[in-house]
Design a protein that fits this description.
mainly alpha; about 270 residues; MetI-like fold; 11 helices
């Protein structure tokens, strides 16, 4: 009986609940990135790549250093960053308000869904000339373009996240006689938060794309204006230096949203 009661290593059932939880490792990404840069630099050094069409990483780094040392890069960078943050804040605040209303109230969804479906597919940069007529050539027209582009992904992800909250959790909260305000604050919004933050990732990329397009159309300073000017001068090393700055901005926004996600979604 004692032998039957013993549990051997072979008798134990392997734990199978650890899957579907992918992590993130920096090592493979850094290795792949370094390999691409090395291959690019090697091809340029051997003459396989025409430097007029694709400068080497060393030439791009030198151009980036020269523009940064002159102070011009900081002027363009801060102009674009201010427009992105301002437009993203306005569009996100309005999108969260409408998306929450559409997720909670029938009347708001009945009115909002057709409007969102009709206007969302319209390219927002196509409306920039109209915004220039309304607000002028200055900052308001650019902020309006970015805010409108950010608004719709935020609305869609917000009400989709609220729709995705398990109804049994809401019914359980109702069975404990929680007031509707507490149900929204403690059950609905936390359950929808992963989808809302995923919308933040999309909207930040949209804001970055739109600021470049808006600055190419009518701006004296900004990364979009810098890239456009470098392209007109066929200074491809400076052009790609501007693209590197845009990539850095994208990485910074992604890291900020990841930090926000870790802070708000600790319960997961």
């Amino acid at each position: 009986m004692a032998e039957l009661g013993r549990e051997t290593e072979q008798d134990r059932v392997r734990f199978r609940g650890g899957g579907f939880a992918p992590g993130q490792r920096r090592g493979p990404a850094l290795l792949v990135f370094a390999a691409l840069i090395a291959f690019w630099q090697g091809g340029s050094s051997l003459g396989w790549i025409n430097p007029l069409f694709l400068p080497s990483p060393a030439h791009i780094a030198q151009a980036l250093y020269d523009v940064a040392a002159s102070g011009e890069l900081w002027r363009h960078f801060t102009a674009s960053l201010g427009r992105i943050l301002g437009g993203w804040a306005i569009g996100t605040a309005a999108g969260l308000a409408l998306g929450t209303a559409m997720g909670l109230f029938t009347l708001a969804r009945s009115i909002g869904m057709p409007l969102v479906s009709a206007i969302f597919p319209v390219p927002k940069i196509a409306l920039l000339p109209l915004f220039i007529l309304w607000f002028g050539i200055g900052e308001p027209s650019k902020l309006a373009t970015i805010a409108l582009g950010v608004f719709f992904p935020t609305v869609i992800n917000c009400y989709s996240g609220i729709d995705g909250v398990a109804r049994n959790l809401i019914r359980m909260a109702q069975s404990f006689d929680l007031p509707p305000r507490d149900i929204v604050r403690k059950v609905v919004l936390p359950g929808a938060m992963p989808t809302i933050i995923a919308g933040f990732r999309i909207s930040s990329s949209v804001a970055l794309i739109l600021v470049v397009a808006a600055e190419m159309i009518g701006a004296e300073y900004g990364l979009g204006a810098f890239v456009l000017q470098a392209g007109h001068l066929m200074a491809t090393d400076q052009l790609l230096a501007g693209v590197v700055c845009l990539s850095v901005l994208g990485l910074v926004f992604g890291a900020a949203i990841t930090a926000l996600e870790r802070s708000l979604l600790r319960w997961r």
